Amino acid sequence: GWQNQYGATCALYESEGHCEGGDFTSGHEYTSSEEFGLPRLHCCICGKGAPSRTPATVLASTGDLPAAACSDTPGWRKH
Asked: Could you tell me how far CA 26 lies from the centroid of its own chain?
């Protein structure tokens, strides 16, 4: 799966609390920058696949986005 130049994966972004429900958590927005590999473009937990800033879990629950519609970018790595 995706990994930035610091070795952070989408799973790490979730486990360390940087992202939740398709967006960055309060106080962790700094990890969304190009310096950190733009995880919003590669990790579902950070917003990949969401048509707006509305959390993917909310979209899925309303039927606007199927729960399985997003996949983390396979093999992407920022060097």
From this structure: 14
Cβ(36)–Cβ(12) below 8 Å: no
Report the chain (79 residues): mean pLDDT per 10 consecutive residues: 94 97 96 95 92 52 54 74
- With the CA atoms of 75, 69, 26 and 62 taken in that order, what torsion angle do they form, in degrees rounded to the nearest 10? 180
3 state SS of 37:
coil
- How far apart, in whole angstroms, are the C-alpha atoms of residue 45 and residue 56? 8
What distance in Å separates the CA atoms of residue 17 and residue 40, rounded to the nearest whole number?
A: 14
Q: Pairing mode, if any, of strands 23-24 and 19-20?
A: antiparallel
